[in-house]
Design brief:
The protein is mainly alpha-helical and 143 residues long. It has one domain: Helix Hairpins, CATH 1.10.287. It has four helices and two strands, in the order H-H-E-E-H-H.
């Protein structure tokens, strides 16, 4: 969308286009963070179930939800599948975490390229600088 506007007008993107692009990047970052959180919760559930089944009799009945259907199986059949799923979830979490880091880098580069400042962050930095200056002038060494 913004690429089409660049070609038509011959100028850089408008402030509105820049903000839309930034908001889109932030939305993608939030989506990745949400997925990461969901996968981590699922991984913790798998760990908890594996830990619980570790002490159970291998021939004992257990129930597993598969696609919305409750299936009766034995512990010895379910435990290997849970371990495999846990390992895959761990790999998936690593990949999503890498994507999240790349997205953060992309957002920072976008902010620097278009000189985007976030109000809350910049205000806090300026206040911190103002407060630090008077303290440095008022120091007195008494011997």
């Amino acid at each position: 969308m913004s690429g089409d506007l660049k070609k038509k007008s011959g100028r850089g993107p408008t402030a509105e286009d820049i903000m839309l692009g930034f908001q889109q990047l932030r939305g993608e970052q939030r989506s990745l963070a949400s997925k990461l959180s969901e996968f981590e919760m699922e991984l913790n559930e798998h760990r908890l179930v594996i830990e619980t089944l570790k002490n159970a009799d291998p021939n004992r009945k257990c129930y597993r939800m598969i696609g919305g259907i409750l299936v009766e199986k034995q512990v010895k059949d379910v435990e290997p599948v849970l371990r495999t799923n846990k390992d895959r979830l761990s790999e998936l979490i690593e990949k999503v975490n890498e994507q999240l880091i790349k997205k953060g880098t992309e957002i920072n580069e976008y902010r620097e390229r278009y000189n985007i400042r976030i109000q809350g962050q910049d205000d806090l930095k300026q206040e911190g600088e103002k407060e630090a200056k008077p303290e440095s002038r008022g120091n007195v060494l008494v011997s």
